């Protein structure tokens, strides 16, 4: 076989053919390295935490050992305390997200299409966001009571601005030539929104959504700190009052898991809605 024939044989070979199994396994490990490192990092962190408690001899009300926290987690899970408070916080977060994101998307789309309105309203929007949420939450509790409504409003306020900005930026980044193309095809306003503006803006909008779901958990806790009789934030306040540090750790870990699950849900939704990008 001539040299040219050998080269043609190698280039015509289907991609991946002839790849050894060890090489394929190494490539898979490198591709999913971030997932494989999670249990390693968690295990190392728990080991360092446990050794620190043993080395310094901390009492449980200062720094409980991981085993103590785990036993407290099982106890609160069995008696329903963690589930009851966690579900209330989850409900506050979801309702707050529904309120804040819907208003932010509608207003962000309108401001993205009308620059004059954006210049007129942006100083007031920025001013409203410059006030710390911890200062607004007590006022909302006073005005609307310590029930569900005040927590939903806090979550809605804290999630509003990131989605508003990302929606405005996403709408304004749509290619003007594509607008001309859609108009030349006699597309309606709804068709332009559904087939052009929304798909083009979604990658940027999802960036704001990912930040908003994390902030929603923070907003729920801030609202519960200001006044509540149920919720994970209330559970932290209760544990702090009786120096039950293991219970505080359980509530904080539950909040972290809740935020991670919400972030994962948005990431999966993003992967589904933007699957056309991978296909392209």
From TrEMBL:
<dbReference type="GO" id="GO:0005886">
    <property type="term" value="C:plasma membrane"/>
</dbReference>
<feature type="domain" description="ABC transmembrane type-1">
    <location>
        <begin position="82"/>
        <end position="270"/>
    </location>
</feature>
<keyword id="KW-1133">Transmembrane helix</keyword>
<dbReference type="Pfam" id="PF00528">
    <property type="entry name" value="BPD_transp_1"/>
</dbReference>
<keyword id="KW-1003">Cell membrane</keyword>
<feature type="compositionally biased region" description="Basic and acidic residues">
    <location>
        <begin position="1"/>
        <end position="16"/>
    </location>
</feature>
<dbReference type="GO" id="GO:0055085">
    <property type="term" value="P:transmembrane transport"/>
</dbReference>
<keyword id="KW-0813">Transport</keyword>
<comment type="similarity">
    <text>Belongs to the binding-protein-dependent transport system permease family.</text>
</comment>
<keyword id="KW-0812">Transmembrane</keyword>
<dbReference type="InterPro" id="IPR000515">
    <property type="entry name" value="MetI-like"/>
</dbReference>
<dbReference type="InterPro" id="IPR035906">
    <property type="entry name" value="MetI-like_sf"/>
</dbReference>
<feature type="transmembrane region" description="Helical">
    <location>
        <begin position="124"/>
        <end position="145"/>
    </location>
</feature>
<feature type="region of interest" description="Disordered">
    <location>
        <begin position="1"/>
        <end position="20"/>
    </location>
</feature>
<keyword id="KW-0472">Membrane</keyword>
<feature type="transmembrane region" description="Helical">
    <location>
        <begin position="195"/>
        <end position="222"/>
    </location>
</feature>
<feature type="transmembrane region" description="Helical">
    <location>
        <begin position="247"/>
        <end position="269"/>
    </location>
</feature>
<protein>
    <submittedName>
        <fullName>ABC transporter permease</fullName>
    </submittedName>
</protein>
<feature type="transmembrane region" description="Helical">
    <location>
        <begin position="90"/>
        <end position="112"/>
    </location>
</feature>
<feature type="transmembrane region" description="Helical">
    <location>
        <begin position="32"/>
        <end position="49"/>
    </location>
</feature>
<feature type="transmembrane region" description="Helical">
    <location>
        <begin position="151"/>
        <end position="174"/>
    </location>
</feature>
């Amino acid at each position: 076989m001539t040299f040219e024939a050998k080269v043609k044989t190698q280039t015509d070979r289907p991609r991946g053919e002839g790849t050894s199994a060890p090489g394929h396994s190494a490539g898979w490990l490198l591709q999913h390295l971030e997932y494989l490192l999670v249990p390693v990092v968690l295990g190392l962190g728990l080991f360092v935490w446990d050794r620190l408690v043993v080395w310094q001899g901390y009492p449980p009300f200062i720094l409980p050992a991981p085993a103590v926290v785990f036993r407290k987690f099982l106890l609160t899970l069995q008696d329903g305390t963690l589930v009851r408070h966690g579900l209330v916080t989850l409900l506050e977060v979801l309702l707050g997200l529904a309120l804040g994101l819907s208003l932010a998307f509608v207003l962000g789309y309108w401001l993205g299409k009308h620059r004059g309105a954006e210049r007129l309203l942006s100083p007031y929007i920025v001013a409203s966001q410059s006030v710390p949420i911890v200062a607004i939450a007590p006022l909302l509790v006073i005005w609307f009571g310590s029930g569900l409504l005040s927590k939903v409003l806090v979550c809605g306020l804290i999630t509003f601005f990131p989605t508003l900005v990302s929606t405005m930026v996403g709408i304004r980044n749509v290619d003007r030539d594509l607008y001309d193309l859609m108009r030349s095809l006699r597309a309606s306003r709804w068709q332009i929104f559904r087939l052009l503006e929304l798909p083009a803006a979604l990658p940027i909008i999802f960036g704001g959504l990912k930040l908003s779901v994390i902030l929603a958990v923070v907003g729920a806790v801030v609202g519960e700190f200001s006044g509540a009789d149920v919720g994970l934030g209330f559970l932290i306040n209760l544990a702090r009052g009786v120096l039950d540090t293991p219970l505080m750790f359980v509530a904080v870990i539950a909040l972290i898991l809740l935020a991670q699950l919400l972030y994962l849900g948005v990431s999966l939704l993003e992967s589904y809605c933007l699957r056309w990008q991978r296909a392209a």
